Amino acid sequence: MATKAFQKTYTRLDAITKATISLTAKGVSNDELAVVNGKLAQVVKTKGDQATLQVFAGTEGIPTNAEVSFLGNPPTLKVSDALSGRFFNAYGQPIDGGPQVEGEERQIGGPSVNPYKRRQPSQLIPTGIAGIDLNNTLVSGQKIPFFADPDQPYNQVMADVALRADVDKIILGGMGLSNDDYLFFRHQFESAGALEKIVSFVNTTEEPPVERLLIPDMALAAAEYFAVDKNEKVLVLLTDMTLYADALSIVSNRMDQIPSKDSMPGSLYSDLAKIYEKAVQLPAGGSITIIAVTTLNDGDITHAIPDNTGYITEGQLFLRADTDTGKVIVDPFRSLSRLKQLVQGKKTREDHSQVMNASVRLYADAQNAKTKLENGFDLSDYDLRCLDYAKDYAVRLLSIDVNITIDEMLDTAWELFAKYFSKAETGIKQALIDKYWPE
User: Which domain holds residue 289?
Assistant: First the structure.
């Protein structure tokens, strides 16, 4: 062993797999960075003097006598206001042709905010998408996933949310983005003139999958700078957490760990919780809200990734194609925001929760009518009106391409009630009907 500028350097490897190397090394710590034969790596396991490192670019071409230099610290990100409007790779290096960012160097992947210093979320985050704002209202400091099939336009929805959300900063963490998706995000943000409030960390499909493991921590380190240091409302968008979990699985399988359900590592729950638990409402007003895409395999919501995600997060938003209208909608039956009651009727209009309940109940009646129709039963006049209402409701309120304020959503719902139903059929309190029923 030799020492170069306080770096521990070794030249004998004990084992090499496709994603990891193992060697005998004294005094190294978990998450510490190292350079292996010129490739960046990170310590993922230590046992006595044995250390296992994941090599981000893969181990191809690394000999058993490769030089391994430990850098003495975990990955860091330089934080300052100069992050705004910039695109970075998984290591926090610029990929937009701009200069390196100067600022305070912060360790990524640190602990979450002490629960004692957290406040109950109470601020509304409007997105302009009625399927979210009306039925599944988001609250600052919330953590919520988008569940979507891989063919759904979830990146389009993420970009729309980024451009419409009433927040101070948007942090995008893109994992396994196609080059087209990366350019799409970049073009959308630039053409909307919104670059100044957006910071992006991107790993594309052309780059090593293991690099994806750094993206959420980089994004959240930037988010914590703006939320904690600057008291800003920050929205973190992560896409796609399924590809993140796949990268975890690559490393754990190469380390000969016994996989748990769906060949995922046994640590999947804590790996995901470490990310999602960074969502926080701070006493001084800053907040971190996390929306993360989890793509489903053949719509399987019981797969280990969405299953574990559901235990950690505060609901989910479910995208699906509506066969009757051809629109992609936020499914009102499978979507849920567990914190919506903290702002509905408090930060929104008094009729919000009653209108939401009535509109979803009538939509459910339409699904029942559809089932009767498919099974050859006669439909009542009420059934037929429900079916017509459901199409209008899907197009004007559930579709992801709707972009209106919450008051406009509520007014639209009242308009649909009056068009298809009597006042009594809505089941809404008389005082609200007297005040809001259209003339």
Answer: 76-342
Contact between residue 413 and residue 357 where contact means Cβ atoms under 8 Å apart = no
Query: Domain total for the chain?
Result: 3
Spatial separation of the C-alpha atoms in residues 329 and 399, rounded to whole Å: 4
Exposure on the CB side of residue 107, measured as CA atoms within 13 A: 10
Give pTM, 2 decimals.
0.91
What DSSP element (H or E) covers 8? Answer: strand 7-10
Model confidence pLDDT, tens digit, residues 161-204: 988 888 999 999 999 999 999 999 999 998 888 888 999 999 99
Residues 122, 250, single domain; the answer is: yes
Residue 389's SS3 state is helix
36/243 Cα distance (integer angstroms):
25
Query: Do 32 and 84 fall into the same domain?
Result: no
Separation of alpha carbons 172 and 205, rounded Å: 16
Task: Taking each helix axis as running N to C, give the angle between helix 241-254 and helix 304-312, from 0 to 180 degrees, rounded to the nearest 10.
Answer: 110
The amino acid present at 203, given as its one-letter code, is: N
